[in-house]
Amino acid sequence: MSRESPFHILVVHGPNLGLLGRREPMVYGKVSLEQINEVLNNYARDRGGVLRIFQSNAEGEIINRLIAEMDWLDGILINAGGYTHTSVAIRDTLAAIGKPAIEVHLSNIYAREPFRHISLLAPVCLGQISGLGWRSYLYGLMALLDILSERTDSP
User: Fold this and answer.
1) Which is the catalytic residue, given 8, 28, 83, 137?
2) Residue 88 CB partners (closer than 8 Å, separation 6+)
3) CA distance 44 to 129
4) Active-site residue, 105 included
5) 86: domain range?
6) Which helix (DSSP H) or strand (DSSP E) does residue 109 occupy?
7) How many domains does the chain have?
8) C-alpha 42, offset from chain centre
């Protein structure tokens, strides 16, 4: 990374993700949200990134946090949980901010109930990673930092 200042990434965890490790471990795994956050912080630190991590079960709180951080952040890593399939408001906020975002999911949303096959967020995100458990977050962060670095290094 040739940029002197670190990349600022907002990590957003949506509803029920605070229950990871206890909530349906056959679907979401046994890794806690705290463990995921630790892996993300360690990776970001090693790559010269700075994370702010936020979890909320409330749609309005997620929107308010995205807006509050929009001038600080360079990119967004988001698992909006169930709001992925229902929240036009979160989708519109991501579009309004206009910063690179990667959508992540622990489970493979396309192998689950049909209502989960539709992401309202995907059209305003650079990409989506799902079905890889806690690694979805890590791979999403890797991709986001690489993309930000490539954009900075471009002439």
Assistant:
1) 28
2) 120
3) 18
4) yes
5) 7-153
6) none
7) 1
8) 16
